Amino acid sequence: LSLKFGDIGNLKGLVIRLLLTTSYYQLSVQNWFSLHRLQLLYNHSVQATFNATGIHAPATHSFHCEHVSSLQRYDALLVPSSDNDLSQLWEVTFIDFQIQGFNVQEGHFAYARDCASFLSPAILMGLVMSLILLLVLAYALHMLIHLKSLDRHYECKASPAYFAQMKDSDMGDEKEPLRNSGNESYELRNQQFGKIYI
């Protein structure tokens, strides 16, 4: 597929040549087309050659990509074919690139297969947020399952409280009168603690 610029100023002699191939893949049970190479020709001489990577789609579809470029910031789908030729001196970028090599009907593109990878930044962010939400939900369910209700403690019948009996002879020793504004009160000298069994 050759793109010529016609009578556009200094670009009269510039031609962009796209080399496309089609192959049958048994796994998908259909034909796929691939862009293998891109050549830049000026005045019928090849100036630069780039190998294309990742530009392929089913033969009944078209291929679309926001940027097809030789620059690293656009994922560099076009790679110079050799370090010795002039490809290193060229920077090629196609914006809103769409191509269909075969089965073109009525001059319109078929359904486009996009170049966006499965793990794009937006999808990665969504996966990370989903993972965080799942962890919070799992922790909340774990806390709810292991929550102990106070009602379980009241289901058991408590035995009556038991206090050690004090002798009458010790009662006089254990309390001492306190003088306080005419009211009589007592202070325990020897305090005994009772045990409560539940």
From TrEMBL:
GO-annotated biological processes: regulation of cellular pH
UniProt xrefs under InterPro entries: Ac45_acc_su, VAS1/VOA1_TM, VAS1_LD
GO terms of molecular function: ATPase activator activity
Keywords: Membrane, Transmembrane, Transmembrane helix
Compartments reported by the entry: Membrane
A single GO cellular-component term on record: bounding membrane of organelle
Transmembrane segments: 122-145
Residues of the V-type proton ATPase subunit S1/VOA1 transmembrane domain: 117-154
Keyword Mitochondrion applies: no
Record's protein name: VAS1L protein
Provenance organism: Peucedramus taeniatus (Olive warbler)
Name of encoding gene: Atp6ap1l
